[in-house]
Amino acid sequence: MLSSSSLSLSDLFTWRKLHLMRYVVGILIVIDGYPLIFFFKETLRIAPGSTAFTAAFLALGFILMIPLHFLHKLYRLNTTLLKQALLFFAVIIFYMAFYRDQWFKDATMDSIYYVYVALFLFLLINIPNDIIEVFVPITIAFTVVSNLALVYALLTDPTWSIGQRAAIQYGEGEYRSGNPHVFARNALMSVVACGIWAFRPQTSFIPRILTLFASVFGMGILVMTQTRSSIVALILIIGLFLLFNIRPRQIKMAVRGLFKPASLALLAVMFIGISVFMKRNGDLIAVLYGYAVAFIERNLENVYAILGIKIQNQFAASLDASAGNRATSFQYLQNVIEGHFHVILVGQGYKSTYLDVPLMEALINHGIPGFVTFAAFCFSTLFYCLKSMRDNPDPLSIFLSYFFIMLFVQLFTNGRPYEISFWHPFCLMIRFLGISHLYPPNLRSEPVLAPAA
Q1: Exposed/middle/buried for 167, CB within 10 Å: 0-12, 13-18, 19+?
Q2: Which of 16, 77, 271, 350 has the largest count of CB atoms under 10 Å?
Q3: 95-141 pLDDT per residue, tens
Q4: Percent of the chain having pLDDT more than 70?
Q5: Burial, 298: exposed, middle or buried (Cβ in 10 Å; 0-12, 13-18, 19+)?
Q6: pTM for the full model?
Q7: Are 158 and 47 in contact (CB under 8 A)?
Q8: Where are the alpha helices (DSSP H) in 125-134?
Q9: DSSP character at residue 355
């Protein structure tokens, strides 16, 4: 066994990097582990339908997050976001204990979920800021593996056919179904992480090309999941990226650079490569095209239904199940405002109504106190995210900022304000957003210098 004095500087550096990677893998298992959980359980049939396996896999994430200096060194976090989150949890725990619907019986299970959230945040404040060095590349690897696992699962699932939403199926017989939202989240995380790494000035040519391909692969998975909130989030992310990163001077330089011999040669190679790929994979292109057309047609039908327009053969357009549920939720809110306004003031009780719109549910179930505390946290987080997009402080803050856009869209489209699928990522934002000024220079993004004239 080697003594500490016999270890070289390179050995220490290697072990340090491995520990940082371990922490990041643990974090990703907690916030994005469900695609792999479904793959192991349902595709590889390791433990089909087992909740114990799910709990064990998430526990593995927590274990990987435990640093060697656990409890000996704690790190700073965003105290503003922490205080707002604690206020919201104080409200919902009060409602869960003293003001809940008579049919609600899951107080113990919900309490365990909240303990998981607190444990995750506690482990995060033990993890060093140095994970910034490896967070984005490890996220790319983790999400690409999950995307590949999904593709393998679809190709080997005899019950899945082209045209269905991309998700690993679980259950038996007529109750067999899948959850495309977790795979859409993974795909969007992959696109964001790949985009950050590809446009990073320090990234060399070959890694940049590979990450761009991985980003396109993630977009393909995103299209196949057909989740509206993720598509809307991706459009917003691209728009925000262009808003904060593209300037007229940069556009002129880019156009001028396109006519350089090296750029023209690269464009020719890319054109030939894309042409060959499309010829050899025409079926794949047709499948993605079919998914895109089906997605557009389905959403146009929802628009027609809202406007009361008739479509083919004079049949009235109708909302799909997801949009119909949200339309019902908004109608419910309108009825409450018109006939039971006192509900807006004090709420109906913890989890008394399922509306599938988190901000609206916080208002209906917890009244003004729940809505104000939850909305204050969410919009404060949005403020820090937009500031990070503008300032580009470090890769992790940038990743979290663009990832939050998906969560922000979901606040108006699907989910509940209590879900750990929201609060585990929120814990990451409490820990790392808005504190880049406390980092040493080697962790912060260096400004990109303009090329000499």
Answers
A1: buried
A2: 350
A3: 888 876 655 667 778 888 899 999 999 999 999 999 999 999 999 99
A4: 76
A5: middle
A6: 0.84
A7: no
A8: none
A9: -
